[in-house]
Amino acid sequence: MSSNSSDAPPQGGMLPLRVIAKTCIATDVFLFELAHRDGTPLPAFSGGAHVTVLTPNGLTRRYSLCNDPAQSDRYLLAVKREHQGQGGSASMIDQVQSGDELLSTAPRNDFALDHDASSHLLIAGGIGITPILSMVRELQARGADFQMIYLTRSAAFTAFRAQLQSPELAGRVLLHHDEGDLSRAMDLSPWLAQPREGLHVYCCGPRGLMHSVHEQTRHWPHGSVHFEDFGTSAPPEALQDRPFTVKLARSGVTVAVPAGISILEALRREGIAVPSSCESGTCGTCRTGLLAGAAEHRDYVLGEDEQESEIMICVSRAVSPQLELDL
Ligand code: FES
Q1: Which of 41, 43, 161, 263 has the most neighbouring CB atoms within 10 Å?
Q2: What does the pLDDT look like over 81-121, one tens digit per residue?
Q3: What distance in angstroms lies between residue 94's CA and the mean position of ligand 1's atoms?
Q4: Is 228 touching ligand 1 by the criterion CB < 6 Å?
Q5: How far, in Å, from the CA of 158 to the mean position of ligand 1?
Q6: Coil, helix or strand at residue 151
Q7: Measured in angstroms, how far is the CA atom of residue 311 from the centroid of ligand 1?
Q8: What mean pLDDT do residues 66-94 have?
């Protein structure tokens, strides 16, 4: 999935990669093929991995790798133009041409396939197809049992449509277009109502889709439903930010968290570093002990039994005026 990342300058160790091809593959979606200048193999990745790229206008953006993880000579990124975004995707699409060089991190994976699963249900919405496609390729190579559901507005907005309708995937991929009409959204309950032993669900797409899948799988075994977002999509209307404070139990320091700023970011601005990765409540890296106060949990990681005592500080907020954190 194309995504927002932090706008902090990239760290060292970036790979200089050449754009060997740039192709429009759906409405507002461009595919970039990146390779080493000298054609040497790239760092390996697994299905669901992403890289962070420095865009020409100086932003860092995370993009899922959408090619077959067995390919070591190139990374494929699909970038969707975000009309409401901060200009990272527009910079990639408008300013990067074939032959240009881009700086990219090596891949990392917060959305990997679970190797203990005996079957897999993959649900992609829109540009959320990108990590799902590399997962499909990995599952095909393994001869694994999987089914994929791909939800888009229309055929014109469906990236990788021809690949997904190829005979090798016959019976595995279900495509659904809602034509921009919510009343035509696909009913996922036939797939999600009953957990099945060994089945894992993976979902990437707009926050509304992920929220719906999250709600419909609350009764599934903990750890069997996985999400990837990267925070590009707006939170549901109901989730309005309110300011509050966090008290750090170990130091006694209190930090104000204004509306529109995450706890993680508020701490960062005070020079307090907490490990993080996805910053969209999907990877679990920023898990923090919650000692007091009532949280408004917005993540896709914690089970109900964990929400009393833990919080994902990259997305979740407070209902009470103050939270006390185990930091
Ligand atoms: S950084 Fe990934 S859940 Fe918070």
Answers
A1: 263
A2: 987 777 889 999 999 999 999 999 999 998 999 999 999 99
A3: 30
A4: no
A5: 28
A6: strand
A7: 10
A8: 91
